[in-house]
Design brief:
This protein has helices at 2-6, 51-71, 113-129, and strands at 14-17, 21-25, 35-39, 76-80, 91-96. The protein is α+β, with helices and mostly antiparallel strands. The chain has a 5-stranded antiparallel sheet with strand order 1-2-3-5-4. Strand 1 (14-17) and strand 2 (21-25) form a beta hairpin. Helix 2 crosses helix 3. 37% of the residues are buried. A motif (Histidine triad motif) lies at residues 88-92.
Length: 139
Amino acid sequence: MFSMIINGELPGRFVWRDDRVVVFLTINPVTPGHVLVVPVAEVDHWEAVEHGLFDHLTDVARTLGQAVKRGFDAPRAGLMIAGLEVPHLHLHVFPAYKLEDFSFAAADPDPDPAELDKAAATIRATLREMGHGEFVPQD
């Protein structure tokens, strides 16, 4: 499924794209601004990914963590690797305000599409302000 989003066969709200990694909003956010950092290559298990790609994934996740923390005025940025819901490695990065934000049970099953669009725009603008515009897709 993620490969279909990456290839444009299914819609996605992209906020980052380089030759190895894409980042798009999840459709079930635990907090507004929750994104998925996904390798373009199909890798199922995080512990099986080659070192260079994992290093790049975590570098991009760190940058996105800074952006969502700043863009959503959050005290922390959360990072989780779950790996059960989709057989394609992805890192969850989200603004975190309290410990309960780290629970997928708190995820919004039906977020307002306008709010997702607004969150994507906030992240893109923040990444541009941080100097990462070359990796930020057009709105």
